[in-house]
Amino acid sequence: MNDIDLQNILARLQHLEDLEAVRHTWRDYCMRLDSEDWDNLGDVFAEDGVLEMVGLDVLLPGIDGTYRGRRNIIDKFYMPGIAAAANPNAKLFATGHISTNMQIDLDGDEATTLAYFFEIVANNTVLIGTYQHRMRRDSDRWRFSFLRISVRYHAELASENVGGQSLQEILAKPYSA
Q1: Among residues 33, 50, 5, which one has the least CA distance to residue 127?
Q2: What are the per-10-residue average pLDDT scores of the chain (177 residues)?
Q3: What is the pTM of this model?
Q4: CATH: 3.40.80.10, 3.90.70.10, 3.10.450.50, 1.10.1790.10. Which one for 3-172?
C-alpha cells in the first residue's frame, strides 16, 4: 500500500465518521427534545445557532418565526411550545418523534441535511414535516448552525382513554437482564 492509497482510505474513513456524527447530532436532538432535556438539547445548537419555525402557528399562534442564539431557542421556542402542548397530569405528552429519510451533504466542516418527521403532540395531534439543517463541526461535536422546521401537514386525531409513559419515565428505568 502506498501513501496515496492510505490517504484515500483515511479520507473515506473521515467521511464515514462525519456522516455518523451528523446522524448522532440529529438523534440527540430528537431524544433530548422528546425527553425535555433542555440543557442537553441546547448542546446540539451552536451558540450562535438559528432556528426558523414555519407552519406551527395554526396550532400555537405566534410561535412561527426566527429564533437566534442557543439559549433563546430553548427559552423562547422549545420550552413555551412544549409547555403549551403538554399536560403531564393527564398523561398528555408534548412530543414524540419519528424522524427518517435523512439526506446528508458534507462539505468539509459543514453539512446540510434534509429529513422528514412524523410527530405526535399531546397524544392527539399529528404533525408531518421536514427538518432542514446546516451543521458545522465544532471541536467536540457537530452542531446545528441553522434549523428550519416546516410543518407540511397537521391533523387532530379522534382518541379516547389516551395515556402512557413519558420518555423521562422510560429513560429513568435502568437496563437489567
Answers
A1: 33
A2: 86 94 95 90 97 92 96 94 69 72 95 92 84 96 98 84 70 76
A3: 0.86
A4: 3.10.450.50
